Amino acid sequence: MKKLFLFFIVLMTTIVTFAQDTLSKSPEQRSAQFVKQLKKELKLTLEQSEKIESIQLKCLKQVDAIKAKAIGPDKKESNKKAREMTKAANVDIKAILTDDQKTKFDTWLVQKKDKTKSKAGEKEKADKAP
């Protein structure tokens, strides 16, 4: 009985720990992470990174507000609006970048999209597994 109780406590602790890791981050945290990645990939100047963070933060706040209001069938429409906002933000970001950085940014976006698709595929496989 003690072993079963101990096992249950360990299991619950593990579940709670993983659940905390998967909680979504605030728009400010996500924006800072986005800029940090771009600084590394594109060698941004301080001025560029500040402008990009401002653009990204504004976009993320708008996207979060739209998604928060979406319920049921409205989710597809809200996802479409979110993608449009993200594309618009990317256009604004590209306006700040040099020509070389624009090319690297486009490549980075494609890699990021591919990585997201592969994660979604892995999750779908895991959901279908018995």
Which key features would you list for this structure?
single chain; 130 residues; mainly alpha
Structural commentary:
By secondary structure, this protein is mostly helical. The protein has a domain at 26-97. It is built from five helices and no strands. It has helices at 2-22, 27-42, 46-69, 74-96, 99-128. Helix 2 (27-42) runs antiparallel to helix 3 and helix 3 packs antiparallel against helix 4. The longest helix is centred in the C-terminal third of the chain and has 30 residues, at 99-128. It is extended, with a radius of gyration of 19 Å. The two termini are 29 Å apart. The model has no long low-confidence stretch (mean pLDDT 82).
What fraction, in percent, of the residue positions are helical? over 70%
Mean pLDDT: 82
Query: Main sheet?
Result: none
SS-based structural class? mainly alpha
The span between the termini is: 29 Å
Count of individual helical segments: 5
Number of strands: 0
- What is the string of SSEs from the N terminus onward? HHHHH
Strand content: under 5%
- Please mark out the parts with pLDDT under 50 across 5 or more consecutive residues, or reply none: none
State the oligomer.
Answer: single chain
List the helices and strands and how they pair.
Layout lengths: L1 H21 L4 H16 L3 H24 L4 H23 L2 H30 L2
